[in-house]
Write a structure and sequence with these properties.
Blueprint (H helix, E strand, L loop, with lengths): L1 H5 L5 H16 L7 H19 L2 E2 L5 E2 L3 H8 L4 H18 L5 H7 L15 H9 L1
Antiparallel strand pairs: 1-2
Helix pairs in contact: 2-3, 3-4
């Protein structure tokens, strides 16, 4: 994929389409999105977009990498973290509308009688989704 994103023979719109259709859905899996993973995903997204839009040539042959504000000016779409939150809320709404006997609804609303490990409680997917709603 790196060679495709750096290629001068493929138009930027096609590269963006590839990014949105092939890479973003893989990044939007249903893991728990913490602040640290959100920063890592934003960094990865900026890295890919900088490869797609490429550097700019200044006076006398000097090149510089585009700034983040320039990249998002061209990209004109939500960043990856907001995209994940929207998809997650859509999935929660889908689960809430399901009938009671379905497995995803049982897993989301179920109370399991296992003991949780000692120490800091791990962030659950359900807790992050409730925080996103409020």
């Amino acid at each position: 994929m790196q060679t495709i994103f750096r290629s001068k023979q493929i138009h930027q719109n096609n590269k963006i389409r590839l990014f949105v259709t092939l890479i973003q859905p893989v990044l939007c899996v249903t893991w728990t999105l913490t602040q640290m993973t959100g920063k890592m995903l934003c960094t990865f997204e900026k890295k890919i977009l900088k490869r797609i839009y490429g550097p700019i040539q200044q006076d006398k042959g000097r090149w510089y990498s585009r700034w983040n504000s320039e990249i998002y000016h061209f990209y004109k779409d939500l960043n990856i973290v907001d995209n994940i939150k929207i998809r997650k809320l859509g999935w929660v709404g889908h689960i809430i509308r399901m009938e009671a006997g379905r497995i995803p609804k049982y897993v989301l609303n179920g109370k399991f009688h296992n003991t949780r490990p000692v120490g800091k409680v791990r962030t659950r997917w359900k807790d992050v989704a409730q925080k996103d709603i409020s």
